[in-house]
Design goal:
- Chains A, B: It catalyses: beta-D-fructose 6-phosphate + diphosphate = beta-D-fructose 1,6-bisphosphate + phosphate + H(+).
- The structure is a homodimer.
- The first copy, chain A, is α/β, with parallel strands linked by helices.
- Chain A has 22 helices and 15 strands.
- In chain A, about 45% of the residues lie in helices and about 15% in strands.
- In chain A, the strands form 3 sheets. In chain A, strands 1-2-13-12-7-6-3-4-5 form a 9-stranded mixed β-sheet, sandwiched between helices. In chain A, strands 9-10-8-11 form a 4-stranded parallel β-sheet, with helices on both faces.
- In chain A, strand 6, helix 7 and strand 7 form a beta-alpha-beta unit.
- In chain A, helix 3 packs parallel to helix 19.
- The first copy, chain A, is globular, with a radius of gyration of 25 Å.
Chain lengths: ~550, ~550
């Protein structure tokens, strides 16, 4: 391993913990509140989780917990996409466990949940752990997207844990993985398997949050990295004064990333998918809003700007969602016939005849190469691969066409040159910001304390995050409390409710209050690279979203 | 202006200067060496620059220079693409000027060289200057790409300078702009205009360097920013273990950026255009090398990796260069007829018939949409727009085809999923690293000291950069010394010789010595974000290129 100077330096960083977690682990006692309810579908969920539904919120106080010193084996899994700080969750868990009893063991299952069912694992040592402290990535044990859903898998989990004498599992993942953690906890209880399960809220998308989980880890570092790049591009745009930059940001289901980045960088336009959906905007309207800004700025001689586009936008535009649905149905139903159509012309002609009138109109109005993407890039099930659609280019092409038209009509006399960017992979494995390094370490340490207090089916929770770490509040939230039932593949399934951007929430309102100025005046802000050292206000600030939400 | 916490903090940073420049400006005296020669074409250049050819290298010593305290007006111009640190060159120049005499004035011409000929300018004040210290971008006065080349322009420059009582111009730009600065200096001498001209070496590309100019400013910050992102992507690749990432890096004529980033991040493959050209590699061979790596890694179960691709690659592949040349000639010659061909099929058929046998073969073997780009995206002169060709996608498409073939033949059994990225605009306007902040401030301050010592036709030079700033050596290099004659648009023109990557240079050798290991073993290094604070080894290091070159 070749170690960069920053990595070497970060090894020495000591993450901050909430006050209560600084005590000896056998001096931290759980304090339980009243029974809880799920956010919806209480009766159904109660039946699905007879053993773990309704458990109380857990807090910690100083007090004796003699059991915390017992030597135990704990298993840990990283699940799903990378998020900065995963290594620190494991470091916190490891340190807590060893603080409890130095003979305790932490077993890391390799390559995600599949490592548990196939029993591929490593045992952590001090030396191994030290090579990953305060670093980005999930390379410490790897991650994977296998879902633990079937009873067969659950039984294998029990077997593997028994064999390895593991009495608790920590699952680090997003909403889906934490849902599965809760199902697993329930199953283990039902089978009296004596294996506790604790979840840890991870996702750069920021959509795993609620009253009790203020933010998922990784969101802070990822949005700071994207904002660094957006700010740099804004400054370039404002220096060269010749390009409109369209920047697509990772995140398919929610626009928290786009919103946070907009608050940090004050671009001319930031599209928020949830607003597009709520206002039932057409593609035409979405484009129209951008064009208005381009034209107004052109009138002031400013033929440059920055537009933020959330990756999942297209699925939030009602007419596009309908079109994609119809295409999927058509192509699935007439797969055999469709396969005989060899040219794009034949395909699109046939498609156009078979779409609904509305969708046919929408399809025809799309640029040619987007039509191609919709018809040609399909997944093995025949579905349109929405993530392959280059939304930023789609917008650019339509805008170009429209401006050309307006120019001939004398309604626009500017110059529209453009660049496009997509930021996603750049931010998922950055060295965690001090915030994420501290938060993740605390979540991991906290997960151990929950285990040491005998809890299962809980999510590790650290709150009051807009304050300094010393004021953070550690505890546990029963996962069932965040659940409701949702339709998935035709079945009602218990899932953690995804947190979308709320249009009446404070962060969106803060954005909405300023965006009209940002659209026209050049109001760019340049956050610069994440700093791990330096003045407090530079290196120890949480996201704007968190600050605004908890002001 | 909304100021980010980092920007606020950076305002307070005090850039470091070489020891000699810390003296009172009237206590810094120039010391001149022997007459110099240009790197080539000495006789011709002597005739082209009768007044400024052969001037000695200038150094500084302690000694009296009473003229330095005179109140003067100096003009400054930013020319060409953005590079981090431009604002600090101006800050250093401003501070030097004001240290000489607080009644001296610094005039910034707006929007690049055209601001000088159209006399659009602002006068710097302390307050205005302070808003830009240690920040990225060229937004302080804007930049532009107008070239100062004609006598008419030169005469206008004289007029504007006379009107504003400007006795010296500082031109901050790349090789072309510095060449023009030298031509301007010569012209002013010839016309006895009493206007000095000093150039400052700028370009993120790193191709403006030689024995006397160790590096151009901006290269350090830009490559650190790109390396941050490459490292993050490498760590993501190594965590998810499912993608090959193809990363194109800005820089059309030289591969210094790709080489520096490779040294910092140790990717599996880094293509160096100069090597491709020198070894006369075909597109087939370039692709073949990457495929070898992919296949070897796949055999070890590692279906992931990172490939760095320099933006200008395609023009360094001899057969592609020939093809593009032929296409340009054909399309220019038969413009009228070609315009009657409406479909891509007709166009490519006609093209194929008219290309040389070799080029026809190369053209036919290209993926369809690259053929389209070559035929359709042409500039107003009918030339192929090489910069529009998505080289990273071209490579991916050919590799995909080839691997599919190898799979059916049983020679490859891996999985090839891919992502592509292009980094350019992300790094040109970052907050300058401490190195660039110090270097640029020193270059600017130094430019004033050269002016105060009556020099013209010199480039501001700060050497010994691999050492701490206190050991840096300030001075001036006559621009003619770096020149030779080159063919440009059919004419022999005096230009500063571009520095390409030298295959027998130390940085390339250091890379070449390790790349076979990097190709197969996962040897990624993760530099992380640029740090402006923290331990010295984290925040005060020059580039690897500079360190290796001056070891």
């Amino acid at each position: 391993m070749n170690i960069s100077p920053l990595q070497e330096a970060r090894y020495k960083y000591e993450p901050k913990l909430p006050e209560i977690l600084k005590n000896a682990v056998d001096a931290i006692k759980v304090s339980l509140g009243d029974p809880t309810q799920s956010v919806a579908d209480q009766e159904e969920l109660k039946q699905l989780f007879p053993n773990t539904y309704g458990m109380p919120v857990a807090g910690f106080t100083k007090g004796e917990n003699p059991g915390a010193g017992k030597a135990i084996n704990v298993g840990v899994i990283l699940s799903g996409g990378q998020a900065p700080g995963g290594h620190n969750v494991i470091a916190g868990l490891y340190d807590g466990l060893k603080k409890g009893n130095k003979n305790s063991k932490l077993i890391g299952f390799l390559g995600g949940p599949s490592g548990l069912t196939s029993d591929e694992a490593l045992e952590f040592s001090d030396e191994y752990m030290d090579r990953y402290r305060n670093t980005g990535g999930f390379d410490i044990i790897g991650s994977g997207r296998t879902k633990l859903e079937t009873e067969e898998q659950f039984d294998t989990c029990i077997e593997v844990c028994k064999k390895r004498n593991i009495s608790a599992l920590v699952i680090i993942g997003g909403d889906d993985s934490n849902t599965n953690a809760a199902v697993l906890a329930e199953y283990f209880q039902q089978k009296k398997a004596s294996i506790q399960v604790i979840g840890v809220p991870k996702t750069i998308d920021g959509d795993l949050k609620n009253e009790h989980i203020e933010t998922s880890f990784g969101f802070d570092t990822a949005t700071k990295t994207y904002s660094e790049l957006i700010g740099n591009i804004e400054r370039d745009a404002n220096s060269a004064k010749k390009y409109w930059h369209f920047i697509k940001l990772m995140g398919r289901s929610a626009s928290h990333i786009a919103l946070e980045c907009a608050l940090q960088t004050r671009p001319n336009v930031a599209i928020i998918s949830e607003e597009v959906e709520e206002k039932k905007q057409t593609l035409d309207q979405v484009v129209g809003n951008i064009i208005d800004t381009i034209v107004t700025r052109a009138e002031k001689g400013e033929n440059f700007g920055v537009v933020l586009v959330p990756e999942g936008l297209i699925e939030f535009i009602p007419e596009m969602k309908t079109l994609i649905g119809e295409l999927n149905d058509l192509l699935a139903e007439h797969q055999a016939y469709y396969a005989t159509l060899n040219t794009f012309e034949d395909q699109s002609e046939w498609i156009n005849k078979n779409l609904s009138r509305e969708s046919s109109y929408v399809f025809s109005s799309l640029p040619n190469n987007i039509q191609r993407q919709l018809l040609m890039d399909r997944d093995p099930h025949g579905n349109v691969q929405v993530s392959r659609i280059e939304t930023e280019k789609l917008l650019i092409e339509i805008i170009e066409d429209r401006l050309r038209e307006m120019k001939t009509e004398g309604r626009y006399s500017g110059k529209f040159s453009h660049q496009h960017h997509f930021f996603g992979y750049e931010g998922r494995c950055a060295f965690p910001s001090n915030f994420d390094a501290d938060y993740c370490y605390s979540l991991g340490f906290n997960a151990f304390v929950l285990i040491a207090n005998g809890l299962t089916g809980y999510m590790s929770s650290v709150k009051n995050l807009s304050k300094p770490a010393s004021e953070w509040i550690a505890g546990g939230i029963p996962v069932t409390m965040m659940m409701n039932l949702e339709q998935r593949h035709g079945k009602k399934k218990p899932v953690i409710r995804k947190a979308l951007v709320e249009l009446d929430g404070k962060p969106f309102k803060a954005f909405a209050a300023e965006r009209e100025t940002w659209a026209v005046e050049t109001s760019f802000a340049y956050p610069g690279a994440i700093q791990y050292y330096g003045p407090d206000e530079v290196c120890n600030q949480p996201t704007m979203t968190l600050k605004i939400e908890h002001k």
